[in-house]
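Entry 14. Structure prediction run on the chain below.
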Amino acid sequence: MFVMNPVTYDSRVLREAATLADAGHEVTVMGTTPEPGGTLEAERVDGFTVIRVPRPIGWLDAWRRTIVSPWSLRRRSVGRITSGVREGRVGEVARGAGAALASLVVSGIRRAWLAVAGRAAASTADAAAWPPETLTFLADWRFGILGWARAAAAEAPAADIHHGHDLTGLPAAIAAAEGTGARIVYDSHEIFLESGRYATRARWLRWVFGRVERRWSRRSDALITVNHAYADVLRRRLRPRRTVVVHNCPPRWRRPDGAPDRLREAAGIPAGDPVVLYHGVFTTGRGLEELAAACEAIAGREADRQVHLAYLGYGGQRPTLERLAEEPSGAGRLHVLDAVPPSALLDWIATANVDAIPLQRTSLNHWLCTPNKLFESIAAGVPVVVSDFPEMRRIVLDEGAGPLGAVCDPAEPASIAAAIRSILDLPPDALATLRDRCRAAADARWNWETESQALLALYAELSSGLSQG
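Output returned:
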């Protein structure tokens, strides 16, 4: 398997690898070191091997020297020409002259770009920047992501099946399988080009990456994704040979009797106070600030109890959350906690009163998603408040077995607050019934024991084809 992260908190990758290892496959996961550069790392985890390959950083020096600061390249080229002439090395003089010419060309492009971009930015109050962000993005793909893919493929052991996670991991799987007859699996955790920084790229760039993803996907023997809505979109766009849906559900779970209340202990929350939890990545588009405003409104209306909001996770928005926690309205009520390992997560979630997932409608990817945290909350027996998006609504407002929580308009703090209150205000017996219904739904349908069967069946079929061949 190939994935461009350190394989520490990626529960899907860890779960799939462990399941395949338990089924008798020899599994190696190729990830990245926590920081760019560094040295190769290897460890044994849950019956499989994790090898962390550093992301290449040497290209960054050349990038900064040639593109970001071309004048520094010019100074170096003058020194190279001078030493070459002094020592009679013609090749050195030629290389220095070539670098000087490149510096002049890039400097000219830079001046022209800043002049044009500066005039355009004058009407929008945006500062013109060099290099253009799109150019930096493409350079990172060309040298960082594809550079890591080549390095990871070179370090990977020989295998019958190479499994690439997301579009950033797929080129490594393809490179490793090249010329070996090995099968290739593309595991798309998202509608990738509708997620994160890819969703806001220029149309022409998304078109280019769409063609690349389609070509790579057609080289794969199967596409795995996380829900049927994503599968429908990816079938139309990529036309894979075969599509398999494996939801991101945790295994069936029961909290041990007498287990400590880790969430309240870590945050210093009194035992009787209700807790609204957000767990996952701290990033934009997740409704973090809208959730804080909703819980502030709830706290302002509560006469006899303190409603707490706990953020459990990691990510670039942490400083924003910490600032909210320091404000008078958040002091003692809003708590920011570090992420915990996937193996411990359900134990931390289980004592929350509500788990909130107010994803914003920033992309098609969000609109159709079924995030890990939804199934983790249900498995822990915690009612959920989710954005009123089609796939999450279908699961949470189960017309057959009964609701597992409530839905809201994630752009409106008042709607989020109303949905949370609809759970917090339930009588004790109704709340206990709701929590039992969440656990029952996880036991009957939304669990890894059920979902992993599709993964195992695919691998059995691919392996059988290899042995027959």
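Residues 123-127 have pLDDT under 50 and may be disordered.
Filed with the rest of this week's runs.
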